[in-house]
Amino acid sequence: MVVYRGRHYEGPKSQSVDGEENTLFVPNVSSIGNQTSRDASTSTLENGKLKVITPNHIESMTEEEREYNSLLDGLGPRFVDWWGTGVLPVDADLLPQTIPGYKTPLRVLPNGMRPRLTNAEMTNLRKLAKSLPCHFALGRNRNHQGLAVAIIKLWEKSLVVKIAVKRGIQNTNNKLMAEEIKNLTGGVLLLRNKYFIVIYRGKDFVPTNVAVALSERQELTKQIQDVEEKVRCRTVEASAPPSIAEDEVGQALAGTLAEFYEAQARWGREVSVQERDKMMEEASRAKSAKKVRQIEHKLAIAQAKKLRAERLLNKIEASMIPIGPSDDQETITDEERFMFRRVGLKMKAYLPLGIRGVFDGVIENMHLHWKHRELVKLISKQKTLSFVEDTARLLEYESGGILVAIERVPKGYALIYYRGKNYKRPISLRPRNLLNKAKALKRSVAMQRHEALSQHISELEATIDQMKEQIGDSNDETESSQSLKGDCGLFDDESKFDLSEDDGSFMGSDGDGDEDIRQEDGED
Question: Which residues contact 248 (CB under 8 A, 6 or more apart)?
Fold first, then answer.
């Protein structure tokens, strides 16, 4: 498309709107020598006060939009190259990169409130942020301390802050941006993609004036506590005797490691090797007993789960009433069995027998196969031959066919059935006495759970018995050592007792001799 401007074309006239700061400059491109307008536009661009907002748009703003616009005016310069609609966001790249003495703002969580957001709260905040305009436009990955200060100031009026990632700037990484802003402000990241970053201020957010008041109050409380501690120490020193005060000059402070070492050296005693070994044995025994109690608790839980699995299995199997063998069972000769086996193994069509086992759908599929052919082949994935034989007998009784052979194949076990010479298709293909597909799956899961729990219970019981044997052996060893020590003590007491008896007899003999001498002196 080519548009001709016309022979008498004149460029647009320059327009200006009266106002101190809200000025719109449209240069007259037709006049090349209009240097005044260029200088004016250049000066306004350098000062960062250019606002591309038409007068009609300013007049049509609502009260909320005007308040929002004035709020953004106090945060920083606007991003003039904004590609969206509405109020221009703040250009975060023009904010200072570092601020001396910047610290993460103080946060205090109200009593009884959970710090983490629930899923419903997260969803509501994301819906709220979706309808909000962007507050900032960011293109720098690092050094966002000035942006963090502006975000904290914005959080006093808004729950969330919405940051747009600038387009067309190379090496922008929204992950690095979000991580640094989150670390600097302490907020909660709600959304991050290649277009927007949304951060929630958090439930523990405290406004700046409240944070200053709280910090001042904490400092005042700390000073009062320090003064009280000094007065208390002076009172104790004044009431203490001078002798004690002189002794305590060289002592360590109370509650320190030096005081512990000093008390240990003064009043403590060294622990012998035997006592240390005894304490270690007691600790290991207590640890083993605790482990036994934990395993017994696990055993009780496993037994309760096994009981529930048994109840569920009995409830499901109550609706399953398998029939027994028929009295009028048709037989086949060995030649026919050999031929049917050979033909059945060559058949490509087969019925899979999965984890559900035998249910009404399997019998229905067997009758549908017998509608077009005399033989049907089933492949079971069971590993044990005894289980395969039980399943084969159950299928034979329920379907009314003749079991030809059970053969091992690469896919599992192949079960071949002959429908019989006098076969008549039943009216109801699905027997009512068997489980349906859903109940068969529940029964299979319950059986697996019961088997796994039984194995787990047996392992726990074996572990408990083994640990109790170890604890009993250690107790027997300690009792034997204590009995040996007790026997040695008894022998020492007996020897002391014998020695005391010998001393007594010796003293008694000395007394008798003295009496005899005294009697002889009296006679004289």
Answer: 240
